[in-house]
């Protein structure tokens, strides 16, 4: 097995209790044995060291390909904090500010009443166009993308509501990054965020030269109870597009390492990507206890991930999480988070898009077992 971080001989050396982690291992094995999902990969890290990385089950059902440590998993919304990080880089360079209007940097975006939308509102799902759709033709034709994001129409006044922008906001973020950098957002993300951290083969947004054979295809349940690949999301178009809201792929180690960087004030493995001040600012709760109208609960949005906060309940991060814990789940399949108080990061990735309420319930159990192990 290949490791991105120095690995401890035993998780207890990094201050984890053995019993909760044994329960976690047993729970995931049971999920796979029961057919809850074909395969899974997890990674747990603390203070820049890997406590463990484990794989379970099958990556590709049709060929009976087992999961290994190099398997890449679809992240869905786990992609959003990565795209946001590209904008963080531009803030650090003094090229944009979170307080700037998007239209100040993205030509044509100020049409249809969008002129006052700020980058902060864009990243916190307060921009006012959650239902906007970008055509498949624009996934690769980014001149067309710029035209389509400019043509987006408002649904409500920016900043007045919090409604999860499933895909729309991060297409705008990608177009904004391209306008400022002059580069394809997929290239800029790789060059400015992933490669400096040594994660360019463990986090992929837009497949170009990375072996597609490493991918665990995403599956879903059919009406007859069987499971099958989601063909539209395993197509060449999808894989190469690197959809900025949902088209990223990663290994569990890669995501755990990325969150190690975030909770270590922007530094990982001797490389400083962000200043401590930037990370402190960008990982605070900007939406308070305002209810997200899609999820029907407060989501406590930071400028990329979301924050645990102190309310009794939280989505995906585990109710036992420290209030400063940040992270992001992926539609019906995954979660990754980091806790700056303990220095712990964790990633849990699977290849079946499951439905509610089971999906949220299992993330609660999985994350809480990790929180319970922290000493």
UniProtKB/TrEMBL annotation:
GO MF annotation, one: hydrolase activity
Q: Which UniProt keywords apply?
A: Hydrolase
Output the SUPFAM superfamilies linked to this UniProt entry. beta-lactamase/transpeptidase-like (SSF56601)
**Which domain of life does this protein belong to?**
Bacteria
Query: What region holds the Beta-lactamase-related domain?
Result: 24-357
Q: Which residues cross the membrane?
A: none
Q: Name one Pfam family in it.
A: Beta-lactamase
Entry-linked InterPro entries: Beta-lactam-related (IPR001466), Beta-lactam/transpept-like (IPR012338), Diverse_Enzym_Activities (IPR050789)
PANTHER family listed in its UniProt record: BETA-LACTAMASE FAMILY PROTEIN (AFU_ORTHOLOGUE AFUA_5G07500), BETA-LACTAMASE-RELATED
Name this polypeptide is given:
Beta-lactamase family protein
Organism listed in the record: Paraburkholderia madseniana
What are the leading ranks of the lineage?
Bacteria, Pseudomonadati, Pseudomonadota, Betaproteobacteria, Burkholderiales
